Amino acid sequence: MCLLFVAAAALVASPGEVLPAHASPAAHVAPAPRPASVGSPNEGRLVAGVRLEPKPYLRVMRSPEGRWGMPELVGLLDRGARRVARRFPGSTLGVGDLSRRDGGDVMGHHSHESGRDADVAFYLRDARGKQIVSPQMFAIDERGRATNLTGAAFDDARNWALLEAWLTDPETRINRVFVADHVRDRLLAFARRVGAPAQLRARAAEVMLQPAGPAHDDHFHVRIGCPRNQKGCLEFVTKEAPPHRDRGQAGRAPRPRRRAGSAPVVRPAAAVEPAADDFADDPPQP
Ligand SMILES: [Zn+2]
Predict the structure, then answer these.
(1) Ligand 1 centroid to 82 CA: how many Å?
(2) Gap from CA of 207 to ligand 1 centroid (Å)
(3) Would you tell me which of 70, 86, 156, 217 could form a disulfide with 115, CB atoms 3.0–4.6 Å apart?
(4) Residues contacting residue 110 through CB under 8 Å, at least 6 positions apart
């Protein structure tokens, strides 16, 4: 049936219609849009993102809906997990939510809207140093123990290896790693103990930040910077806009509304200083 249709179509199309040698039916299809992170992490969207796929060294912990991101983010997560697994064979990194396929609001998050944010579980270990893999994320107390999983502890070596991989990634620049202060302190102390280069430790100290909201004591929330050639991408969070605001065109930053005859609305640099990142927080979740 299908073959007959194709043959008939070819007969109809052929008389008198001479296609140039290089032309093919595919040439008439509009080119695929390029990946774009539009707007800010808390007020943005994602165009032509890629999906994070599970690998032997990377497991996906949340719904398939929230597994989309900019290629730079998905690549970072994959390369980071692979590097840790090369150094500590058998390790698997648990990754929670990224963004939805088209970005925008994600239930349970203030940000994660523009394909540049991901929640990443800590590596946990048992008393002998073996990795503990769980479908859940567990809070870590001040002494480095998992509060709700007997015998599990924060794995300093693997988690530092992951952070090191992110900070030295050849393709992607990190903007922030939101994490609780006591976890940040642990990692910096560990890095000092194992003789990590001072420059790397300084960069780690600069990037890790406990957000104003929930403490992030059960996961890293990694946010990458705006990839190159992303004109509509806003590096930092923006003040929440009133609902139903125009979202702007593809590839452009959302613009504030302006009443006819009024002066342009100036948003204070649109971006809030990262240190005052009140919107990076996620709700407490397992
Ligand atoms: Zn998050």
Answers:
(1) 21
(2) 15
(3) 70
(4) 42, 213, 279, 280, 281, 282
Considering the domain boundaries, does residue 102 fall inside one?
yes
Beta-ladder partners of 36: 47
- Among candidates 177, 176, 39, which has minimal Cα distance to 104? 39
Measured in angstroms, how far is the CA atom of residue 62 from the centroid of ligand 1? Answer: 12
Tens of pLDDT, residue by residue over 126-180, are 999 999 999 999 999 999 999 999 999 999 999 999 999 999 999 999 999 999 9
pLDDT for res 26: 55
Does residue 209 lie in a domain region?
yes
Q: Is the dihedral of CA 238, 244, 250, 255 positive or negative?
A: negative
Q: What is the distance in A from the centroid of ligand 1 to the CA of 97?
A: 7
End-to-end CA gap in the chain: 53
d(CA 252, ligand 1 centre) in Å:
24
Task: Measure 112 CA to ligand 1 centroid, in angstroms.
Answer: 7
Give me the number of domains the chain comprises.
Answer: 1
Distance 278 CA to ligand 1 centre (A): 12
Does any domain span residue 285? no
The CA 189 to ligand 1 mean position distance, Å, reads 24
- Domain residues for 150? 54-236+269-276
| Ligand 1 center to 257 CA (angstroms) | 29
Q: Does the CA dihedral 41-43-49-50 come out positive or negative?
A: positive
In the predicted structure, residue 275 carries a pLDDT above the cut 70: no
CATH number of the domain bearing residue 158 = 3.30.1380.10
Mean pLDDT in the chain? 82
Tell me the percentage of the chain whose pLDDT exceeds 90: 69
285 Cα–ligand 1 center, Å: 10
What are the tokens at 92?
A: 């698997």
pTM of the full predicted structure? 0.76
